[in-house]
Amino acid sequence: MKSTIVFLLSILIFTACGNQGEGEGNVIQEVGQDISSRVANEYLVFEGEIPCVDCDRIEVELWLEKDSVQETSEYWIRTVHRGTHTGDIEDEVEGVYTKLVGYREDPTATVYQLNPGTNEPRYFLLNENEGTLSMLGPDRRMMEEDDDERYDYNLRLKRN
């Protein structure tokens, strides 16, 4: 009788512990989903492949903080230079960007400037429509297209 009670208590304890672990897994999954949805709600994500002078191509993934009420917002960019003489080179940079109005061909266009007021390289991206950013040169003119039609200077909206 005593061994039966011990056996039943053991089963009860293991069952209770097992159920608690399953609940924790659900909580972790819910937290992960919450973070993903929050990030998706806070950032626009663009990606594309652009021409490269000393490599095959550059893969670009750009995250722009959206709906910020501040003068500058945060960005994060990941680039992978494919096919360099030393192999693929990956780089990640974060900083701030600001919205400007107008560029040479369209005085009402929205242009995103990465790294305003810093010593870092500044990049200009023209918001041509809600789904495409076109890279502009330092003079804020459209970049000349490369002969290789597989790549252009456009980043397309991946997630908003």
From TrEMBL:
InterPro entries: Cu-R_lipoprotein_NlpE
Highest taxon listed in the record's lineage: Bacteria
Protein name from the UniProt record: Copper resistance protein NlpE
Biological source species: Anditalea andensis
